[in-house]
């Protein structure tokens, strides 16, 4: 695979995760990179995507963002994760390869109730499409059902040798059921069934309360100075 690709660097802007920090992104602008195979390779280099934009943090004074991927074959749920799976045994999990009309009302309910103080509020169809549609790679949708009612959807990228968690939204009435954690556990399970080696979870940011939960899934690897380091807890 050629290494001669066009990349761009954004201007610095206020960080979305850490106060008093500035953020800068490295962007994969070359169109040849915008397919499933190249995106899988870019994920190995610490990139993510938002819609059709593929990016990686490239900050001058901060290295807080650590790309993290779960080692699917070595994963062992913690005691609390086992309890959560047992508590949610009444749920049914299915896999869809297409977006359904029932998704957006659930997404809107989730954002407007749980994230009403965030930058995504209020929910819009355009915003929803940025998670559920792209021209880069295939996606699948891990659905959670309770008594015939859809209560959660985990939007997941399907890339070579891995799945990548994009976004999960759920019925706010089920918030106490830990559906965010439950969906990650089911994505790991789905990756195992599909014989994938990794589940990418995005960036672990230890100093950010909203982004410091991903290292609870072990064994996993974090990308440090362009080298994947295995962490066993």
Could you explain the architecture of this structure?
With 233 residues, the protein is of the alpha+beta class. It has helices at residues 36-44, 79-87, 103-114, 125-132, 179-193, and strands at residues 7-9, 13-14, 22-23, 25-28, 48-50, 53-57, 66-71, 92-96, 138-146, 149-159, 162-170, 198-204, 220-224, 227-231. The strands form 3 sheets. Strands 8-9-10-11-12-7-13-14 form an 8-stranded mixed beta sheet. The protein is globular, with a radius of gyration of 17 Å.
Structural class: alpha+beta
Tally of helical segments: 5
Strand content: 25-35%
Mean pLDDT: 95
Number of strands: 14
- Give helix and strand order, one letter per element, not per position: EEEEHEEEHEHHEEEHEEE
Strand order of the largest sheet: 8-9-10-11-12-7-13-14
What is the CA-based Rg, rounded? 17 Å
Largest sheet: 8 strands, mixed
- CA-to-CA gap between the ends? 35 Å
């Amino acid at each position: 695979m050629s290494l001669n690709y066009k990349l761009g660097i954004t201007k610095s802007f206020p960080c979305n995760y850490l106060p008093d920090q500035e953020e800068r992104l490295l962007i994969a602008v070359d169109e040849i990179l915008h397919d499933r195979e190249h995106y899988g390779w870019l994920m190995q280099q610490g990139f993510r995507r938002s819609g059709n934009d593929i990016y990686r943090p490239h900050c001058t004074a901060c290295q807080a963002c650590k790309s993290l991927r779960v080692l699917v074959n070595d994963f062992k749920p913690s005691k609390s994760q086992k309890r959560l799976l047992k508590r949610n045994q009444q749920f049914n999990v299915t896999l869809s390869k297409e977006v359904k009309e029932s998704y957006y009302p659930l997404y809107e309910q989730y954002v407007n109730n749980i994230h009403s103080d965030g930058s995504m509020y209020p929910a819009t169809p355009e915003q929803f499409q940025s998670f559920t549609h792209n021209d880069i790679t295939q996606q699948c949708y891990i659905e959670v059902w309770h008594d015939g009612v859809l209560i959660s959807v985990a939007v997941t990228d399907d890339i070579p040798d891995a799945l990548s968690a994009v976004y999960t939204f759920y019925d706010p009435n089920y918030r106490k059921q830990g559906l965010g954690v439950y969906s990650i556990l089911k994505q790991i399970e789905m990756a195992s069934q599909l014989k994938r080696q990794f589940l990418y979870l995005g960036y672990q940011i230890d100093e950010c309360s909203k982004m410091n939960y991903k290292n609870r899934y072990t064994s996993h690897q974090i990308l440090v100075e362009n080298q994947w380091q295995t962490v066993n807890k």
